[in-house]
Amino acid sequence: AHTVETGKVSLDQSIGSLIPELQAAGGKVADSINLRHLSTHMSGLPRLPDNLAPANPTDPYADYDRARLIAFLKGVKPARDPGVSGEYSNLAVGLLGELLAIRAEQDYGALLERVIAGPLEMSDTSLKVDADKMERLAPPHNANRDADSSWNFSAMAGAGAVRSTTADMMRFIRANLDPPQGELGAAIDLAWKQHLAAKGKSFAMGLGWHIARDGQTRWHNGQTGGYHSMLMVNRQLDAGVIVLSNTATGEVDAIAESIIQLIAGMEVKPRTFPKVPNIDAKVVARLAGRYQLVPGFVLSVRADGNQLFVQATGQTEIRVFPSSKNRWYYKVVDAKLTFDLPTEGVATSVTLHQNGRDMKAARLAD
Length: 366
Prior knowledge:
By secondary structure, the protein is of the alpha+beta class.
């Protein structure tokens, strides 16, 4: 454990030092993973905890509390040692937020208000929307533009619970372009600095910030149920871009990137979109079925005419779109499906392509 001043932490502080229960249980993660690892996605922790199991799949994080989080950490065996290689982890960011809340002895929402939203006069930035502001909350939609369900958070609040407005986020951009005096400004500058060099396809990292290939632009995006956002800040250009959307689609990222490129004086070509082929309903029907990725985790594929829908165990059903008769893609997440479709008969397996991995699932007997 590290000795720190009341309410403060150090980047090299272990997660176990902030969770005595975890420290007492022993195990490798308590001492080996520190706050810098969490903030730069070098912790070795998976993208999500395997004990998520939401009671309501349309609100997957609402009941994932501190007790479940600590229980997961006690038993987890990271795929690699901290600091070896990076992989984006919602779990790591959610854990980081919870650790800071534990250290501050207040919930994450109150900590956000005290440290950031209050000092920067971001009066519309919070975890929950007050009753008098609800009529201003844009209703959520999925990438198919169908009505969706917004998410609520407990112990994973740091991974996506913040609600805000364009005006408030412009105040946040200004604070990053010209940090205020005092501890908040010092923290903003510390987060802005590069803490991890780019490696392979992975971006260089500040604290939380991804650093673009130009070495200047800091950015972060995010997507929850029915919403997507993208924030980009460049001090050399004295400019920032914020795009908030109540449609959960990665197209928001492309819009923000185009805007910052235009500000930089780059030539930006208009976006083009591939034409979705019309697959015969009889072919689509041959893809329907249940495919097992691992025991207990199944992709249930349903055909409705020439449309295809996929539901993973414990998750909501999502429509996918064809690029060919056996290749389909999600709009709501960056993922694709490739079906093994014989000349005749039903598909025998499907491969899920996501996060750089190809995961094959065999068809289960009807």
